[in-house]
Amino acid sequence: MITGDLVKCSLKGEIIEGVYITERDGMAVIKLGSGYNIGIPPSQVEYIEKSEQIPIAETTVIQNQALPELAIISTGGTIASSVDYRTGAVTSRSNADEIIRAIPRLATIGRFRTRQPFTILSENMKPSMWVDLARTIHDEIEEGAAGVIVTHGTDTMAYSASAVSFMLDTPVPVIFVGSQRSADRPSSDNAMNALCSAAVASADLGEVGVCMHGTVNDDYCAVHRATRVRKMHTSRRDAFQSIGASPIATISYPELEISTGADAIRRSSRELALFDRMEERCGLLSFYPGMDPAILEFYSSYRGLVIAGTGLGHISTMLMDGIRECISNGTTIIMTSQCLHGRVCDRVYDTGRDLLAAGVIEGEDMLPETALVKLMWVLGQTDDQEEISRMMKENLKGEIQRRSAYGL
Amino acid sequence: MITGDLVKCSLKGEIIEGVYITERDGMAVIKLGSGYNIGIPPSQVEYIEKSEQIPIAETTVIQNQALPELAIISTGGTIASSVDYRTGAVTSRSNADEIIRAIPRLATIGRFRTRQPFTILSENMKPSMWVDLARTIHDEIEEGAAGVIVTHGTDTMAYSASAVSFMLDTPVPVIFVGSQRSADRPSSDNAMNALCSAAVASADLGEVGVCMHGTVNDDYCAVHRATRVRKMHTSRRDAFQSIGASPIATISYPELEISTGADAIRRSSRELALFDRMEERCGLLSFYPGMDPAILEFYSSYRGLVIAGTGLGHISTMLMDGIRECISNGTTIIMTSQCLHGRVCDRVYDTGRDLLAAGVIEGEDMLPETALVKLMWVLGQTDDQEEISRMMKENLKGEIQRRSAYGL
Amino acid sequence: MDFKLLGLKAGIEIHQQLDTKEKLFCRCPTQLRNVDERSKEIQRYLRATVSEMGTIDRAAEEEMKQMRLFRYYAYDTTCLVENDDEPPTPMNEEALEIALTIAKLLSMSPINQVHIMRKMVIDGSNTSGFQRTALIAMNGIIGDTCRIESLCLEEEAAQRVTDETFSLDRLGIPLVEITTAPCMHTPEEVKEVAGYIGMILRSTGRVKRGLGTIRQDVNISIREGARIEIKGVQELDLIPEVVSREVQRQVNLLAIRDELISRGAKVPDEGLDVTDLFRETKSKVLRKSPCIIAATLKGFGGIIGREIQPGRRLGSEMSDYAKKCGVGGIFHTDELPAYGVTEEEVHALRERSAAGDGDCVVIVSGTREQAICAIRQVFKRATMAFEGVPEETRKMLPEGSSAYMRPLPGAARMYPETDVLPIGITTEMMEEITLPELLTERAARFTEELGIDEALARQIAYSDRLPLFERAVEAGIKPSLAARTLLSTMRELSRDGVDCSGIPDDTILDLLSRVAEGTVVKEGLPDILRTLAGGAALDAAVTSVGPTFSVTDLEEIVERVVQERGDFIRERGKAALGPVMGVVMKEVRGRIDGQIVADVLKRSIEKVL
Amino acid sequence: MDFKLLGLKAGIEIHQQLDTKEKLFCRCPTQLRNVDERSKEIQRYLRATVSEMGTIDRAAEEEMKQMRLFRYYAYDTTCLVENDDEPPTPMNEEALEIALTIAKLLSMSPINQVHIMRKMVIDGSNTSGFQRTALIAMNGIIGDTCRIESLCLEEEAAQRVTDETFSLDRLGIPLVEITTAPCMHTPEEVKEVAGYIGMILRSTGRVKRGLGTIRQDVNISIREGARIEIKGVQELDLIPEVVSREVQRQVNLLAIRDELISRGAKVPDEGLDVTDLFRETKSKVLRKSPCIIAATLKGFGGIIGREIQPGRRLGSEMSDYAKKCGVGGIFHTDELPAYGVTEEEVHALRERSAAGDGDCVVIVSGTREQAICAIRQVFKRATMAFEGVPEETRKMLPEGSSAYMRPLPGAARMYPETDVLPIGITTEMMEEITLPELLTERAARFTEELGIDEALARQIAYSDRLPLFERAVEAGIKPSLAARTLLSTMRELSRDGVDCSGIPDDTILDLLSRVAEGTVVKEGLPDILRTLAGGAALDAAVTSVGPTFSVTDLEEIVERVVQERGDFIRERGKAALGPVMGVVMKEVRGRIDGQIVADVLKRSIEKVL
Fold it and tell me: Domain containing A362: what range?
């Protein structure tokens, strides 16, 4: 039997008809006429006939040529997915017509073309894919896209956005968008997030951002700077938060009115350029009490290591020898803080001063994850130790804030 | 020359007298009569004589025997430190008289006795020290302390408090307190934190908490449940935050009025008991895109591993083989989320379901750091895999919340 | 009406909330809250999602005609799951066990592997836009002829506070939905079956009691009619009326069908803007309306205004359809002139619409968009009239008639809940379930063991206070006292407007024990309960009704009264007991048992004689 | 007064804000803000910390007498460092370079390794409770006889808004503190040295200008007197007055000392509660006071009321000390009866206090705690009177007298700033510094190169508009026009109450260029500047003052005027030029250069003649 076959099954003598869906944990899953699925022993299921294939009725999509051309690059994730109502399987909508059919109001904001460099669950994202993604975005902008929307699973969206931010100098908005609740549910945040991201992709912005719900209400979306954003909740719609910085824009819903922050980078401020080398042999290590110093041996062959230390950027003195060993082996080590908020300062306590003396670079107020992505990128750009150190300490794409504003 | 020697030094012919402090980066550091320190080449410094040792004038401290007896256990950290105004060296105040002399109002709250199991920078804290600390606290309570105050460096205070929380069933408040700004400065948060912690240590509470500034103002302190607290800022006074939970109490300042939360555990709710075995071979691994699966080999000999996965608790499928290998080697693996807020749910996506099938245990809404400490403790209590799994999923000391309240 | 002749087939769906500690897919308590206690609000839109078939479920589509912002009240007893901001937990095992118990009581076959489904509901009552539901068991038996089709375990929807505002406290409370086959053929039969199932449910002792915790939906069709689901029938006694009115409606609709066909009636394709006709009208609604659209329904004259059910006309049905577009309703010439619309205006309207005598002109008003949407809905319903009875979900109106809610939902709105793993139901699980004593059995036992008469025993067994009754009897209180207090006394108080439902069981038990101990007399119970219902504590209530009154106290009064009336007593002899008793009772009523008074007085009179 | 005879020794400390892009220990701009622009507030207590020596610095202790809650205004231009919620950054290199430049200009020796210190200040003006300061250089030379002791680089304190409220915008702006040796011996000399150092500072072109950006503190002592630091002398011209009034104060205090000793005066140990004496007094302050404490100072009669400086008595000094306890001041019998206190009350007070004729009774009022604290402060200051002059930090009062602030701080309040690493100053760093042209040299150059007279050249060189002047000259504008506009014109406008300081340099430069190009006439400058100061844009200002006026326009007017006055002109001949010029000028003043008018008119008259 295959999915869709009409079957009959007996339940305590009573005969019931249904559609065969799949097998699960040794049971045959049958969809009854009422819509309910039930799992019963396969032995009780009997094949009747193939089901009739009802062709999918598709309305024609006409795009308004007067609107700005926006590129949608889909990489997977729930934002543009749809569910097979019979099996529950989730498939990805990737062509413009499909997307507009799902969210018709998009057609009033722009005309869309789509690219799909790959489709993955975002937890399977790899640095090499970031490079592919950055190249795809670069090509789209080069070919005239007025803005780029990247649909992405939320798990690693902040990492990817940050990576693209370092690799790409963009004159147009590059907006990452995802959804926290699957697109198949009427309450999904996908439509609002997609509409807001389209609105901001055609707005006066010239940098890489992440556009997601600003609150748990369907009231506005926030666009976060790619290098300052972090997924701060496993499931809430407003999981994405700018850390130590304000969002660069907000978009009201359903009005789609955009309000841009004072320090947002405007459209055409930068020339399009791509620097797409990433050094993958970089790691991120979160320190904890009792950490075995031997772990550093694992990283000693790495080109770069970001440590998320405690407090102002500390680790146990037990690790100091390993740190020195790594550095003498040519590993660049960046200190960030597992506190996430606030600035690393290794000049206050002895432990910190020892780290500085050993050659550890203070990561200022960079998020540990952003520091990792940046380190991969910096090590892809240069081998010169002084240049590496200079670039890591310099604010390149908003990842470092020279001042720690109060109230964020 | 030693610290305190009177010296004269010549500065472009001019002779200046001062006190020799130390040598730093090849320079002799001299304190001038004006109080300023300067560093000059040692060759320009000439010894005159030993300085007069002025005996330290100490006022007598009389403790009020009518007040509740509170134990102060100092482990180091800036909270009870004082600075040598000549050298800048920081020393720790550890006996009751010294502490009361520094913060006289303490004497109006309780009478104090002190213990100092060790003095370290908190980043050098180790699980074996947690055990010593828990034993010391246990002894103090057994000997009649009405409350225990543990002074602790802030870097790893949350880890230690959490560890003590698991090891110790306490009928009295066990309050960890630290300070974010060094005690030598007039603006230090140490006095307010210490006073608030003493107030709450004598209050109607019977659990382990962390008492720190509730805001950046000197208006109130919050007491956070040990297993739900995290240092969320490198430097702000209000760095400690309850994650996904309300503080269990607040103490107004300077009034020291205590307001206790509805779910706080009251004094004498639990019998004193100590379970002081911790399994140290446990690790915490924060997943990031591009993580080398080989890292899991490092942990395969561990008894326990907490993973801070992405989103609802995911990692790359590239790591699945390593995970299975670890588990088959007997490593207990707990999944938490690097989002910090929210609950792990590995039933929603395939990656998660694969993890569950491999035997990974969902860490519910536990903080990754708390999950690590709990895992060390649980593995110290039992070898039985089912029991381990049951204990890890059960709320023992407030580390798991069965419901995710909205608004926290 | 001869229902059998009409081919009445009726089935019922019973929705019963379960009394579990926690909700079905989260760990919040199943506790209802006062909206004033809300701590937060959230606001969301819902949108129907397209199924794989490229279609939107017709019920969902109906709800989507307007973009509505829903507001939800959250409480400290609700969590992120109700907010649709956290995946659900695995299904509540307690709820599943209760559902399986019920299934076993109904001799149903459990499903081997239960799959949790999402049923799309976008009227705002579910934050997620769907209701989680699982088919737990099938094929049960009830009585001799009737079959239970299915038992589902579902989550309760959020309670509507006002139009677009919902309260999240109720959302997620476990609910069993028991659906019978359409095996009933008279209105009375429907009521009986509903009553029997209700008894089965309450026999578990683990279902919620009280207003709104059980709801009956009735499915009704007659020959040539269609399946109609009438929702929200809360009172058992109303069921027969609802059923017969629906039969009447279907009969009338079928007659209308025949008449329309024979008249060659016709539904137009388009409406006509007649806004200008009503510029000066006295009808406020029309005068203020930015757009008025009219349409002539050829051959519908007199039919749209025809009553099909008490208080309901074909026009009412059209109006219900039109309201989905946000308009207030429709006007039609079968009822005009009226509502401020004059004869002249009607004339002008008919003229403009080129309506003949046998035609009916319908007008709708609102914004242009609303009006266009509404007139199309009218056309839709008018077209359906040629088919007879459209399949619909309807809601019951207070007297037993019904109004249109939405089309019957199709299977398209049901798809798997991927966040919750399926659950296997094993034979062992079913065998481990111990069946509770049925309430009918229990009533019989009360009669037999406690000597309570059959009617009272049945009342007690079915009452909300049954657990309290059983505790009281266990505590040694006389069954008759307990039964009388919990049933008669409280019912009488209730007729006086005193609501005893808020008095805690423990308090009542304490009070009954005091009566048993003699420190409170049973005559005082009504007054004490009345005081307790007002919020007083037990001790205060007892004291307020009167100080405890000893036999010695009584003897003093009796002695005084007997002395005062010595002559009368001596005159009448023992026959004086009655009249003198009245005098004494005037002073002591409610403070001491009448039997004791009689005894004491009798002795006292005997002494005098 | 013969200052040399009195042994006057004076030194000065000059605090000059540096015009850096960022603050000294954080990366905020050095921008002052209006308090209305604040975005947040924070509230903190400060407490003196005990040094290793077991002592609290006496200045800090003085500030601690009350537990004060300080409130700070934060801005979007301040950060967590100003909030004392983040460790400082390394020292601002730009500020260090300016400081070293100044040091080099003053021929000072830089410190090899600069250590940043914390100077404890708990008056609330520093959120941390200390001011970061570093000794950068020592031993400079000024003139022939005077020595610069030290140059420190410090962070500016927060600006006080009201008593306990401070604004964080100023906190952390870099400041150089230049301290001279006590090498000045007359008030005038002090002013000269201060002026010279100020010139050196401004020569760098990298210091802040304007109100409050430079502050002079003066250190003064006379023989047998004591070192007094008078803070906050902002105007150079006031320095001599301040110095001589302090000398006068010290002379008088020494005389009081001698008299007290010769009288055998005595300070009591304790005060006396006299609250009851003033229950009915007309003095509102006393009547409302919960506690009044009196003390008899034996032998102080007449002395406490004695003037020691214009407007200041010994009593004023005692009052300053008492105010540290939160009381409003003191009363003493040398000035009573007064302030509503009657003769009788004074009598009663003296009697109760057992005060003799030569004694003075002091009373303080407030809460009991405050009053006890205050009377002790009075005793403390009275005891000091036997020593003559106590070492003090004082603040300047408007006319040049001074009031007590706090004791001179000791070295105990200085300890290392462990959050900032020491900085090495190498010979190379010093050599790389290019010294700026001194303003004196520049003035000379202006005279020589630009032909401006010496006085004007000096004015220009010292003026705030110097950079603008230099830009103007570079842009080809006549130096005399630029100098006259920037100095005379603006000064005259300022006298009329027109503040030109808000007009941007670029606007002024543009305006001057238009004058140079002839599209604006220099006669129009005052009016245009006035309009600009009111906030107008340049084009608007130029237009508003009058349309641009061409020579052709002028010629028309001239022709008309000359024709009208043909007879007069012919009568007077060339002598008519003056009177007719007056008539023309009435019409065109401010719109065209007078010289052009004269030329055109002259030619026109010649034509007529």
Answer: 282-393
